[in-house]
Amino acid sequence: MLLTGKHVVNAVPAKVWQMLMNTDTLARIVPGISKLEKNGDNSYISTISMKLGPVSSSFTGNLQMEDIEQEKGFTLKVQQNSKIGNANAAIKIGLTPVADTQTEVSFEGDVKLSGMLASMGQRVLGGVANTLSKQFFTNMEKELAE
Amino acid sequence: MSTNGLIGKSVKRVEDKRFITGRGNYTDDIVLPHQTYASFVRCPYGHAKILSVDTSAAKTMPGVVAIYTGADVADVNGVPCGWQVNFKNGDTMKEPKHPLLVSDKARHVGDAVALVIAETKEQAVDAAEAVVVEYEELPCVVDAFKAAQPGAPLVHDDVPNNMCYDWALGNPIEEVNAAMAAAAHVTSLEFVNQRLVPNAIEPRCYNSSYDATSDKYVLYTSTQNPHVIRLLMCAFVLGLPEHKVRVVGPDVGGGFGSKIFHYTEEALLTWCTRKIGRPIKWTATRSEAFQLDAHGRDHVTKAEMGFDNDGKIVALRVKTYANLGAYLSTFGSCVPTYLHGTLLQGLYTTPKINVDVTATFTNTTPVDAYRGAGRPEATYLLERLIDLAALEMNVDPVQLRFKNFIPPFDGVNQPGYQTQVALQYDSGNYHGVLEKGLKMLGYEDVRKAQKEAAGNGKLIGVGFSTYIEACGIAPSAVVGSLGARAGLFEVGQVRVQPTGKVSVFTGSHSHGQGHETTFAQVVADKLGIPMEDVDIIHGDTDSVAFGMGTYGSRSLAVGGSAIVKSIDKIVEKGKKIAAHKLEASADDIDFTDGKFTVKGTDKSLSFGDIALTAYVPHVYPPGLEPGLDFSSFYDPANFTYPFGCHIAVVEVDKETGKVQLKRFVAVDDVGNVINPMIVEGQIHGGVVQGVGQALFEGAEYDDNGQLTNGSYMDYCMPRADDFPMFETGSQVTPCPHNPLGVKGAGEAGCIGSTPAVVNAVIDALWSGGHKVKDIRMPLTSERVWNAMQD
């Protein structure tokens, strides 16, 4: 499943970058996250609860940041397991300055799903991804405004 | 013999009283003392090495009784395949083990890694989730053609090129090539006959138990053939003595073929029940049903049909890649060969035919017989080619058919028709069904409407399909020569009770077909007694001597004929008893309307009198045994060959590509008909399934072997409002070689309808100037719209 999107937030790239690199802030803005622990350089262990159409589940696994380019972007390697199937993805996240005070945050990646997750709800997954990314950016804006 | 007119009457189904009031007795309804419940740990990947299985946490979960993994059953045989196909060079097909639980690697999503047994279903599910399996993902192949290409990932390490077999049938390929080269016109078509999910209403369910004191097993199973399951499980998988195993197929909520096969779960539960000494029940979830019930179809084909200047077919050349899935299912090997290749004569006099099939293993669910099995694929191929040829040659598809039809023959005064592909048809009148179909359709009016429609936003199309199928699957000699590892026949026992009531034991199994009505009609009619006096017993290996089950529209043609053979024996003995009582010669006794009468007199005894006499004898003559109870093992001389004509009229929206089925005309010739209402119902159901393939359904795997539409949210099932009222007609060409003259009706609708609908859409597009040869099924709006843009 292809996952793409972008959103302009009211902050300079440096500030957005700082937020993305801060475990505590991330834990507040990523929807459904209940645990985010650093377990190495640019590496985290996470637990995320999610409702996907007819099924809901708790995902646990690794988040790993690679190809980090300061204030410009990174690739987020996602490996999440749950009782309803597993998700693997490499998502490119990019920060581009817009005007003087804004940043366009973009993401692009291919998510590989397996098990029940793959066979149930292909039709709803796109919608869920949209909703979650909207929530993420809303939370991010709220955080930036404070 | 007598008749009370029950044969041929639309008697309402007696079994519906319990079905529609929720009083059926299905396997999942059965709860045994000390019942336990099972849940499987299944691989989420299409192809993965199993690095480790850790059950330690799961074992401590509440209610857990036992957990088994692949290592525990490493020494147990896998489930067998019942049909042997040979490579062209004579080698036998590759038959890799299909283990009850995998231990080395999983080969398709849902392959079972472990079985968890617990006190409740919920506890079993929870504990199964606590089993930790470490996998190493491997590359997948999901397409039949790609699997055969060099370098494709290997599903079984010891099966080169993933090739189960390559196989050919018909005239030598050189002769076919020469005829094709000399043809005035060749129509060629490359297409995919897509994979379908069977979708029975009742998911598979098994309940297995063992009694140590009697050393006996009982397996309740949602199967289409309990005796065959017992035979396969005892003789080939578990090595159990058959007389210690009772297999019961109680009420079963539909099968469409998917419940013919011996599944790993049946054998595994039976193996485990003795280990734990308690009954174990497993009921598939709907997701498991999508993922694991053997799928149907899945061919990639290139076919060519050559014509001479007069429009006569001169040759047919077919190359098919058949997807078998990850393992050989019970009859998986015979579907693309003996149920597909042998039907490629169709209704036509084609003098040269060659069909070549390569069957491959892939990282997908095993494929096996699904309603029609092989015949829909053959019919789709032929009927698409002939309608397309008519468009290409700008001739009428009806006239092209009439020109090429095999002339009528009844199999009595004229011999059966010998095809180029092994079979000999029993009787047929193919012109008749098409003529009747055209009349019902009002063909000229439809063509006129098609021309007029060109001006508005819709395109109208009419599509034809004239099909034949091979039913009444049995003839042991024939199926044996075609590779079946067992003879096929059917058993019918008629036990007359002392009071004249009749218990009939049949080896065919009813899972929605209405045996309790149809068979009772036959028996009551033949014996001249009320239907209420007849009880049909089936589905239990302890009460029925043997049976080969129900599939391939064989119940009435083979099972019903076996019952008739036993009735003949009952009547014959009844005459002897009557002769003794009436002091006449048995030759002088007539049996009509339920009465044994001395010819030319009014001296008679009723069926009930004879029954009572049979069981309370005290003045019997020597040589006449008491009792009135006979069994017959009936093995017919040939398959039966139902045929028919299906015509679809569709409307295609020019703007959106949406297809709407406007009319559907079906004329089927299924030989003699016992219950017209049941036959019509089976035709309706079949047509819906066939149209489902044309317009809605299709299992989709991604490159990682994931079934991406494994639920009703994404897998589009046909609904009532997708259909017009069906216009059905019938013709009767009796089967010349069985005592009932019946041919079988269960699959006809599903075989005839698919090409009719696709042909209609192609015809509609051509009428709008879009000379499209093929659109991949299912014909979604998007695909039709895209086809119109090219």
Automatic annotation (TrEMBL), chain A:
A Pfam family reported for this protein in Swiss-Prot or TrEMBL: COXG
InterPro entries, per the entry: CO_DH_gsu, START-like_dom_sf
Protein name in UniProt: Carbon monoxide dehydrogenase subunit G
The species this protein was found in: Panacibacter ginsenosidivorans
Automatic annotation (TrEMBL), chain B:
Cited Gene3D superfamilies: Aldehyde oxidase/xanthine dehydrogenase, a/b hammerhead, Aldehyde oxidase/xanthine dehydrogenase, molybdopterin binding domain
InterPro entries: Ald_Oxase/Xan_DH_a/b, Ald_Oxase/Xan_DH_a/b_sf, Ald_Oxase/xanthine_DH-like, AldOxase/xan_DH_MoCoBD1, AldOxase/xan_DH_MoCoBD2, AldOxase/xan_DH_Mopterin-bd_sf
Classification via Pfam families: Ald_Xan_dh_C, MoCoBD_1, MoCoBD_2
Protein name: Xanthine dehydrogenase family protein molybdopterin-binding subunit
Organism, scientific name: Panacibacter ginsenosidivorans
One GO MF term attached to the UniProt entry: oxidoreductase activity
Residue ranges annotated for the Aldehyde oxidase/xanthine dehydrogenase a/b hammerhead domain, each copy included: 21-139
Keywords attached to this entry: Molybdenum, Oxidoreductase
Lineage of producing organism: Bacteria, Pseudomonadati, Bacteroidota, Chitinophagia, Chitinophagales
